[in-house]
Every structure is written in structure tokens, then in C-alpha cells.
Amino acid sequence: MAAENEKSRLDDAARAGWLYFIAGHTQDEIAKMLQVSRASAQRLVSLCLAERLITFRLEHPIAACMELAARLKERFDLGHCEVVPTDLAAPQSNAGIAERCANLLDATLRSETPVIVALGTGRAVRAAVERVTPIDRPNHQIVSLVGNISADGSASFYDTVGRLADRTGARHYPMPLPFLMSSEDERNKMVRIEPIAKVKAVAAKADLRLVGIGQMDQKAQVHVDGFVTRDELFEMMRQGAIGEITGWAYDSKGRLLKAGTNKRLTSIPPEVPAKTTTIGAAVGAAKVSAIAAALNGRLINGLITDEATARAILER
Amino acid sequence: MAAENEKSRLDDAARAGWLYFIAGHTQDEIAKMLQVSRASAQRLVSLCLAERLITFRLEHPIAACMELAARLKERFDLGHCEVVPTDLAAPQSNAGIAERCANLLDATLRSETPVIVALGTGRAVRAAVERVTPIDRPNHQIVSLVGNISADGSASFYDTVGRLADRTGARHYPMPLPFLMSSEDERNKMVRIEPIAKVKAVAAKADLRLVGIGQMDQKAQVHVDGFVTRDELFEMMRQGAIGEITGWAYDSKGRLLKAGTNKRLTSIPPEVPAKTTTIGAAVGAAKVSAIAAALNGRLINGLITDEATARAILER
DNA sequence: CCAATAGATGAGCAATAGTTCACAGAGGGA
DNA sequence: TCCCTCTGTGAACTATTGCTCATCTATTGG
């Protein structure tokens, strides 16, 4: 076909696209105007799209978030990804992602058929649970991925499982163990006892795992909260630890370390690569490396973060 | 409703719009993603449009033309308006509009039910006729709005009616009169004689009138072609003539003059305001005033022009 | 000049989108 | 507190769009 006809076809496509998207006519009307069949009008509109004669511009902060989410999803092969606008007044605030996590939990728990939700550590997870809409789902199960007895023997501040169970009437399985045991042997013994094995079995069948992501630096949450000592933290950092999920420390490639606190950790180990829906939730410049490593190591297959963090992850 | 919810609704609208227009999901998919009913997803997409959160941009020269055409249509209440890209290599070229006029004629003549097409003067009209696709329509009628005997007594170069009849097999009604008679009385006598009255009657029932628009300046086509003398032209200009359609001169408000050559003109007078489809075809900076006046005076209710001319008309 | 072939076309059907309606819940005023 | 209004909702229906397939039409190569 001659170049002139080709051009004329594109002209028509542009005309059709204009009439369709900008003037808001139906394809039937356009067909009449351009003196072609409706099928052809439809093809012209398609062509206009295919040739990128027309572009869409979304003038809204959300647009950038959607774009970033799509790129993260593509780049790390994620099943789920949400990016919320960064709260400029409080850039490290997890309010935004907590709201989205709560939404995710709501959606999951709304199901009439029984579902199992497993929860990890993290302030965002905690905040999300607080925002979950109460709903009566006695057949659901909520299971903890981490020991909820803190170093001093009291039930941990992070009793997210109990809170979520309150709001849903679901059966819940807290993990009645300290975060760390005193030795690898003891850990191995404890995780074999009946109540713990049961928790592990339920967790293995979880439909959704929602976990926080912690960075391993001097301000590491596991240390701040008193779960690991300064020395233990530094030892892990020496071993290359850059982040942790449910206490499991991993290096910059997202490989779980086989040393230090990881040997005494009672938390249920992550599935690698993550196969069941495992959503990480975290924001903040300090966590960028940790999040990126977790994504690369496929410790998680979903992410909820904010715009600034998402951008930083992609720009690494 | 609280401002916060309002904002959140717009956020969702933006999300929905993004997913719909940019990611290309169906509203059903979006409904599932956003955890709302499909109907609500549709409302969000509508809202996104209504709030102008999303805009369309057509990256094609045609876009500007469509835009101009829409504005002209709106501003002058036109039934039909087409704007073609200006040929930068030949800005006064009427090739573009001739093609569109031909297309319009094709479309009109394609009809199986008999139609009557009336033709005026003008190079664009002439060129359009040459481009009409031959088609056999013996029941159509082609009628001339202007006398086709030029000053020297020969058949005019502008025998468009004959040409178009050749291509369609339609009956045709040339107007066997000189362009101008020698006096008003003579003109009034001539237009009453049977063959002329017949042409006039056919023309009155025309489904489409396609006319050129001439400017009344020193390069006026009616003068260049020898239909009016220099003195006659100047006299009309003194009377305020700014343009002419089928020889009928009008002033800057589009009012037909009741003086000079208009009194001796044999052309069928325009219907004012134009009620049957009357399309003016003209391009060029020199014609801008004439076209604008014709539009304002409602001597025409349709226009085919080019981008540069359209822009100039709107900017007056 | 003819056959092969790629691309275009329109009919008809399946999928998707838009609209209407009745209703439910939130919020505000008497 | 009660009622009213107003917004938002989903169901159901209708309109529009997208797609497939059989057919047709140009163009190119032999």
C-alpha cells in the first residue's frame, strides 16, 4: 500500500480517535461521519490507540503511584503491589500503607469461605489491624508468624493476632514462644512441640501473609524493641544482614543468613521463593535496601509502600 | 460528606481512571481490584472524566484541525464543518479542501434515493468535482447556481455541473445565461423565462449546495476571470463588498448588497439565513474576512477550510 | 496477464459499558 | 429523638464495543 494511503489511514485514525475520546461520540456516529462501517470505525479507534496517536494524562498524585506500582509489579514479578502518596508532612508515617493493609485485610476477611491470615511483625501491620472493620467471621483463622513472648516474659506489644481475632471472632493462633531461644538446639526442640507444630501447620496453609520489613541498622526495630541485643544485631550486620522479615535476617541479595540469631529464632521461616501471597509493608528511606533485597530474594511476592520509597527502590 | 472522604473518592476515581485508560483493564477487573461493584467502578471512571482528572492528548496534526472544526461549528452554529491540515509547501493550495469536498459529494451522491446537488463557483468546487469517484446515479440532479456563459459568450471554464453529471450520469441543469446582464430590468426578465425558472426551481429543492467563497479585493476571482470589470469591482468595494458567493456580493456583516452588479446578476440568490445544507469551501489569508462575513451573515451553514484559515477566522 | 497473498471489509455475536431504578444509610435540622 | 434529604449502592436492563470469521479486493511477483 502506498505511503499516501497509509498516511491517510492514520489521519482517519486520528480523526476517529479525536471524535471518540475528545468529542465523546459513539463509534456508530463516527462511522456515519467518516462514511465507513461501524466495524471500520472501531478499527480506526483501535489503530489510534495502537499507534499511540492519542495519549492519556492523569493529573492527579495517584497517577504517579499507580505508575510506580505497575513498574514494581513488573520488575519484581509481584502478584500484588500498592503505592500510596507519600505524606509530605510526615514522610515516614505508615498511616497511608496501614490504611491499604487494612483494606487488604478487610477484603480478605470479607470472604464467607474460611481463610487463614498469617501476620508478621511491623508497625504498619499493627496499625493495619487496628483499622480493620469489625466483621463476624468465626471460621477464619489468624495465625502469628512470630513468637509473642518478649524478652521479659510478658506478652508482646505486638499482639496483632489477638487484636485481629477480636475484630473478627476468628480462631487465633498466637505463638507462645520467646522471639529468640537461648540456643539453636533449644529452638529446634521447641518448634517441634505440639502447640508450636500446630501453629506452624496452620501458618503453612495461610491464604495471606502480611509482614513488616525491618532494616538491620542501628535503629533496627528488632533491637529497639528489645528482641535482640546490640551485640547480636552487630554480629548479624557483620554477617551481611541488611533486613529482616519476622525476625529472619537476610543479606543484600535477599538470602536468609544461616548464622547468628537466625539459628535461635522461633519465627516461622519464610517460604523461599514466596509462593503463597506474602505481602511486605514498609516505608521510609532507611528501609529501601531491605525492601529491595526482600524483593530480589523473593521473600515476598507483594508490596505495599509509599511513593518516595517505591521511587527509591526502582532507582537503585 | 467530610472533605476527607471526598478526597478519598477522587483518589479512587483517579485509580480507576488510571487502571481503565492507562493500564487498559476492564471495569469488571477494576471493580475487583478496588473491592467495589462493577457499577461503582463505572461511576469512578465517569467521575474521573467528569472531574477532568484525566485528559486526552492527540499527538497528530489532525487533532488541531478537529478542534478548530468543533469551535467553528459551535461558534457559527454550523451543521457541517471540516478543517484540513494546511499544506505548508503550498499554503493557498485548495487540494486538501477539494479532497474533502469531493468526499462530501461522493457521500451525497452515493445515496440510492434521488438527490439534488447545487454547485457554485470556485476553484475548490471545480477541483472537487474532478476528484469525485464515478458512480452511476441517473436519478440524481446536478444544478448550477451561476450562469455558465462567460462575458465573451463561450461556455465558462467553470462548467462544473457538466463535469459532475459526466461522472454520475445524473441529469444536469446548467444555467444558460451570462454571469451579468446589462441591466436590472433585463436580468429580471431573463430569470423569469422558462428554462431559467426551471433551473431555479430545481435549485430550490437542492439537498446540498456546495459553493466557493470569493474575496472582493483587487485579486477577486470574479474580476480575474473576467466576469466583472475593474470599475464594477471597485464600485462594489466602495459599497462595502467584502466577499461574494456565486457572484452575490456581501458586506462585512454578511449582508447582501442591493446595488451594483448584484442588481444585474443572474445567479440564484443565496437563501438567507441558509436553511438547506450550504457548504462554503475556501482557503487562504485573503479570504478570511469574506468567509467570516459569510458565516456571520448565515449565507452558509457549513464550511470546509484549512487549519490556517480556520485559525484566522476564529481569531478575528 | 494471471495467480498468490496480504490486508481490508461487514455481519453477527459475545463481552463490556452505561443507565435507570428502588432502596439503604449518613448527616443535619426541627 | 425523629424525620427528611441527599448521596451512594447494586440489580437489572439496554446500548455500545470488541472480536471472529468468511469474503472480498487490491498489489506484487511470476
TrEMBL record, chains A, B:
GO terms for molecular function: carbohydrate binding; DNA binding. It comes from the Bacteria. Residues 61-315 form the Sugar-binding domain. Keywords: DNA-binding, Transcription, Transcription regulation. The keyword Chaperone does not apply. Pfam families: Sugar-bind (PF04198). SUPFAM superfamilies: NagB/RpiA/CoA transferase-like (SSF100950). PANTHER family: TRANSCRIPTIONAL REGULATOR LSRR, TRANSCRIPTIONAL REGULATOR-RELATED. Belongs to the SorC transcriptional regulatory family. This is Sugar-binding transcriptional regulator. It comes from Bradyrhizobium zhengyangense. The lineage of its organism: Bacteria, Pseudomonadati, Pseudomonadota, Alphaproteobacteria, Hyphomicrobiales.
